[in-house]
């Protein structure tokens, strides 16, 4: 599992996440800053796993998560809210912002083991 799709509406956080993933040996193959682009990418692109911000400019990323579930793609949430969005059925890790490289590494390990 090397190719990661990032769904994050904050450009600086997306860039930091891409750098951190690179340090851990992953490659960001796609990213989306809003719900519309995230849904299109989740539907039509090839990647191994995804990292989803819970809130995208006030919209829940839950529709993206449901699409990933349908495709059998693992994902984790990265959020400042502390938990997955209401209605989420995911048992995968939730990465709490702000996070350190070691926390991202542990979350990615759990994601690959799921």
From TrEMBL:
Domain of life: Bacteria
One GO biological process term: phosphorelay signal transduction system
Presence of keyword Nucleotide-binding: no
InterPro entries attached to this UniProt entry: Bact_response_regulator, CheY-like_superfamily, Sig_transdc_resp-reg_receiver
Occurrences of domain Response regulatory (ranges): 3-112
Modified residues (4-aspartylphosphate): 53
Gene3D superfamilies: 3.40.50.2300
UniProt keyword annotations, A-Z: Phosphoprotein
Pfam families noted in UniProt: Response_reg (PF00072)
Cited SMART domains: REC
The name this protein goes by in its record: Response regulator
Originating organism: Rhizobium vallis
The organism's taxonomic lineage, starting at the top: Bacteria, Pseudomonadati, Pseudomonadota, Alphaproteobacteria, Hyphomicrobiales
């Amino acid at each position: 599992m090397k190719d990661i799709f990032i769904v994050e509406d904050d450009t600086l956080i997306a860039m930091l996440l891409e750098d951190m993933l690179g340090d851990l040996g992953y490659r960001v193959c796609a990213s989306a800053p809003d719900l519309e682009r995230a849904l299109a990418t989740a539907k039509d692109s090839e990647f191994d796993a995804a990292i989803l911000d819970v809130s995208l400019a006030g919209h829940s990323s839950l529709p993206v998560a449901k699409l990933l579930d349908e495709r059998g793609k693992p994902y984790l949430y990265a959020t400042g809210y502390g938990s997955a969005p209401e209605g989420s059925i995911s048992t995968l890790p939730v990465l709490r912002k702000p996070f350190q490289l070691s926390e991202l590494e542990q979350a990615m390990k759990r994601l690959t083991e799921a």
